[in-house]
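We give this protein:

***
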Amino acid sequence: MIDDGRIPARCLFTIRRGERVRDNVKGALVALPEEVIKIKGCADRWTCLFYDPAARGCGIYDYRPLECRALNCRDTRRIEAVYDTARLTRQDLLSGVNGLWELIEEHEQCCSYEGLHARVEAGTHEGRLKQEKAILEILGFDAHVRRLAVEKGGLDSRMLDFVFGRPLCDTIKMFDIKLIDSNRRDR
């Protein structure tokens, strides 16, 4: 479905290993043990990008992903079983793209949620994170790689959330820390 273009990669995003997400089945926030590829929502909402409001149904129904086929809101046993099966990964889809998979691996190494978690858990001193500089360097590297992939690599900017996962500046809140621009004059 993705390989043949029925579900374009620009319509996907990746939730990376270690990212904390709400697990509705377990009813808790959990760190993902493995990455998950999902279909994007519409305009900052979780409504599926392929939902057709006029038809009141799925616009890719015959080609919908396994999770969508298994979903039954009244009986979640089938989707719960799917959660524990092997899932399609970015490596499955992108390892054949010359140079891109290596960049993704470098990004994962430098911008892992495990690494961020360890730096946040190092604690604070005088109201600031002890590893603040290292955290900011990770966030900067994430933003830099994304910018370069588009400007120098020609990557469609709509694919960034799929290729590199969601931007760290958007997901850093999972660590209960807040970024403040110290250069702002309106404080």
In short: The CA atoms of residues 2 and 8 lie 6 Å apart.
